[in-house]
Please model this.
Amino acid sequence: MNTAVFAKSLSDNRRALAGWALGTAAVGMTYASTYPSQRDNTASLPEALREALHIDATAAGYLHASVFGVILPLLAMIYGVSTGSRTLAGDEEAGRLDLLLAHPVTRTSLALQRFAALTVGAGAISLLVWLAMLAIRDSAGLTSVTPAEFLAQCVNLALLAITFGALSLGLGAAVGRRAVALATTAIIGVLSYTAHALAGQIGADWLAYTSPFHYYIGGEPLKNGFQLGDIAVLAVTAFVVLAVGVMRFNRRDVG
Model:
């Protein structure tokens, strides 16, 4: 039973994961490929207006503001929240959790193997996004962003999905109700994104540091490459929220 739950989770979710990976990569590729037209439109604006609106017309600036700044992180969050919420809480509500725990597998091992499957899924999605960006890099005029910088942003994308997945899984393990885990994590995600987006505009820069989205993109990996401090914060956050949820899962009655 060392990895049986992990393998079964990947097998059961292979079609959904393929859909998530292909769909997310296709969305990212579609929006990223519009950079040449967006660059031309931006170039037609008066320089004073561009400076006033803080418009960055570079490839990294465009991708930072739209593709990796809005579209892909929201998709990654949705993947993490939806997958994590059904990982344990979904089985418990469906009456399958007792059957799983009747096998020689501990609750901790069950939770960790399910989380490992979620992590592999997030990694697969981000890998396909990275390959999609490389596929259109030349034709879309994105050559100023190196493959390593694309990889750095895609690693952070995976970690963002994993962080919200860990939170959703941990909440589901703690309370045993998928709807609670789904709604709570979704609300936290929306508030986190809002804090990251509006902190500078309302003069509360410190607020951004409470948001996972800040550590996902605040260091501008598309320009600066891997930001090890931000990676560590996302990884530790995922570990802590998962550990708290699993501790509660081990102590409560399941049913």
About this structure: DSSP finds 14 helices and no strands in the chain. The longest helix spans residues 107-136. The chain has one domain: 4-251.
